[in-house]
Structures are given as structure tokens and as C-alpha cells.
Amino acid sequence: PLPISFAFLLLFFLPTHAFADDKTDEDHETTEEAPLEDADSVEHHEDSLDDSHGDEDDVSHEEKHEIHQRFFVGIKGTALASVGHDAFGMFGTGIFFDVAVFHDWLKIEVVTRFLRSSHGTVVPVELMFKKPFHPSDRVVLFYGLGPGVAFHFAHEEKHIYPTIASVFGTYIWVTDHVGINFESISSLVFEDSLVSENGFGIGVVFGW
After folding, report:
1. Across-strand partners of 187?
2. Which residues face 145 on adjacent strands?
3. Whose CA is closest to 113, among 191, 180, 179, 203?
4. Interval 9-51: pLDDT, tens
5. CB 114 within 8 A of CB 142
6. Cα separation of 130 and 145, whole Å?
7. Dist CA 203 CA 62 (whole Å)
């Protein structure tokens, strides 16, 4: 009976000890793998932080390169040809001042030109309402229309005529505050008869 009892005791205890050893090994492996999982989590979290910082840097970089000036002033050389009962050419300079009332919709410009011709001196003064278009951060297209007056000085005589003028042109920004201005100019002068004037202007524009 004693050997049989001893055999049963061995059969009873052996699986229990084996299971205990297996469980201890599994706990040990889990304990060893846990730091690895924690390390992976920390690394993933750091990568997420790096990505978020990178996105913030990209946004700030884009914001720095956007150009949103409110005021503009410039000077340009101008050439006009008068087409009417007596055609002649006019050459000179012009100065202008712009205010962006709505960045993507409306600019108001006051422009004055000083032009010389064989008939004397012509000084048009115009109030332009300009619609801007922004195909890129560095290029602005615009179309403008507005009323004005033209002062004609010739042989000690002075005449003042109402006008309607239109322009189509572009600002190309070389830097954030300095650009080049190209534009075509058309105007109708209400003299004794209707006179059409057409030409172009090239100059420099400053914005802030």
C-alpha cells in the first residue's frame, strides 16, 4: 500500500509543479516583453510629437510667405496715343496710391500722370476701382475702371475734360514689399468730340 500511495502522490504533485513552472516562465517572459512594449509606445509617441511639430513648422512657413499688403504706392513710365480728329502721342510718368479695401475683391486707386506731347502738357487724375485676382502669392492681376478729369495746358490755355479710364495689369512681387507693375491703359476723354487714348505703363510698386 505504501508504494502505491507514494506513486499517487507523485502523480498528484508532478503536474502541479510543472504548471507552476510554466506559469512562472510565462510571467517572466511577460515581464521581459512589457518594457519592450513600453519602449515601442514611447517611441511611437515621440514620432507623433515630431510629426505634429513638423506640421506646425509647415503651417508657420506657409504663413510667412503669404503676401497681404494693405497699402500700395508706386511710380511708372507711361506712353499714350490719342486717337481722334488729331492723333498724337504722349509720354511721361505717373504716380499712384492704392488701398486694399477687401483683399480679394476691391482696391481703390488714385493715379496722376504727367504727360508731354506736341500739343502741350496733359495731367490726367483718375479714381480707379480695381478688382484683384491672385493666381499665386507673388502675382496679382487686376482690372480697374473709374472716372477722372484731364487737365490740358497748351499755349497759355487750360482746359479741363471729364474722362472714363480703364486699366488691366499685374503686380509681380520680387520681395514681400517691392514689385514690378505692368498695365495697359485705355481712356475716353469728353472733349468737343469723344477722344480715345490707349497706351501702357511700366513701373515699380511698394506695398506694406
Report:
1. 165, 197
2. 129, 166
3. 203
4. 444 444 444 444 444 454 544 444 444 445 455 455 555 555 5
5. no
6. 7
7. 28
Separation in Å, CA 72 to CA 62, 76, 181 = 23, 13, 11
Set of cell numbers at residue 7:
506513486
pLDDT of 34: 44
Q: Please give the sequence-ordered ranges of beta strands (E in DSSP) within the chain, or none if there are none.
A: 71-83, 88-102, 106-117, 120-133, 139-154, 157-173, 178-190, 194-207
pLDDT classification of 69: cutoffs 50, 70, 90: confident
State the amino acid at position 178 in one-letter form: V
Cβ atoms < 10 Å from Cβ of 175: 10
In the chain, the amino acid numbered 86 is D
Backbone angles phi, psi at 119, to 5 degrees: -95, -5
The partner residues of 74 in beta bridges, in order of sequence, read 96, 205
Is the pLDDT score of 132 beyond 90?
yes
CB-CB contact of 78 with 113 (8 Å): yes
Q: Nearest-5° angle of CA 161, CA 166, CA 167? A: 130
Residues 6 or more apart in contact with residue 52 via CB below 8 angstroms: none
Nearest to 191 by CA among 160, 154, 148, 146: 160
Measured CA to CA, the distance from residue 59 to residue 67 in angstroms comes to 15
What 3-state DSSP class applies to 30? helix
